[in-house]
Amino acid sequence: MSDVTTDPRVTVCESRATGGPVSELLEPRRVQLGESTEVRRLLPSLGRRMVGAWCFVDHYGPDEIAAEPGMQVAPHPHIGLQTVSWLLAGEVHHRDSLGSDVVIRPGELGLMTAGRGIAHSEQSPDPHSPLLHGAQLWVALPGEERTVAPRFEHHADLPQVTTGGLRATVLLGELGGARSPGRVHSPILGADVRLAAGAATMLPLEPDFEHAVLTVSGAPEVDGRVVAPGTLLYLGTGRREVPLRAEPESRFLLLGGEPFAEQLVMWWNFVGRSGEEVAEARAGWQGEIAGGADHRFGAVPGYEGLPLAAPELPPTPLKPRGRER
């Protein structure tokens, strides 16, 4: 799932990592995507723009879609980021302009690196499971890495860490000696953590990273604080471990990474460093879907229907602002 809103906000992002451990709870902003999907947007937010290189976090579902079309996102472009598709229930059919054609299922990593430019679509297949539940996350690409050649990776077998009533699947980076096969461009961590009912354990962390926890089910207690589903608990930096408890069986996504030093301009589905860069990408996409000769993004083979048109640029210039609001 991507940002298909027709009036996207201009967001200037930076990590604003707090020096040391904190416990900062972020409530979601509800966003309607299409006719049948509502998401809870955790990043970027008014309180915090990034966690490491993680710059966009949507949590959706569980939604009953047995009699619905489910996710239906037409072809659209990206630059300067990686998309991470992570399903807890249901399936998503991914197609992109490289020719990738993959159905992503729970426990499988769909990792798309946009780099200098790519287009993709996301749909619930027909037929599909009755429930849809998952998270869509973006990772900002650093420096010159943001213009690498686009690629798509599908990893169905991911490493796991098991200890003391905890089972963690490593999406990106490394946790407890287990490393994901997903290719990354900055020090980062993403893990899907399950806690058995009654579990009480310590989760090892990298002290140079900032971390956050997004609860997707249950009611885990993280550092002594219960984190409800659909909310994000920011933990700051400087932690070597964090205590976990669970009365009911619980599940959360652990996100972390070295604080991202660069400022970003995020607009629609583009992550750039300047308003000019974003405007150029928009013009290129609009030219392509109008039949122009520029093929920076490319068509999505196999998709039946029209691609998404980019929204109008805002009347004020797209440009980075200062680090503080």
From TrEMBL:
CDD domains xref list: cupin_pirin_C, cupin_pirin_N
Keywords: Iron, Metal-binding
Cofactor note (record): Binds 1 Fe cation per subunit.
InterPro entries found in the cross-reference section: Pirin, Pirin_C_dom, Pirin_N_dom, RmlC-like_jellyroll, RmlC_Cupin_sf
Chain ranges of the Pirin C-terminal domain: 191-286
Cofactor: Fe cation
Gene3D superfamilies: Jelly Rolls
Gene Ontology terms, MF aspect: metal ion binding
SUPFAM superfamilies linked: RmlC-like cupins
Pfam family name, one: Pirin_C
Binding site for Fe cation: H76, H78, H120, E122
Domain Pirin N-terminal: 39-139
PANTHER family, per database record: PIRIN, PIRIN-RELATED
Family according to the record: Belongs to the pirin family.
Name of the protein: Pirin
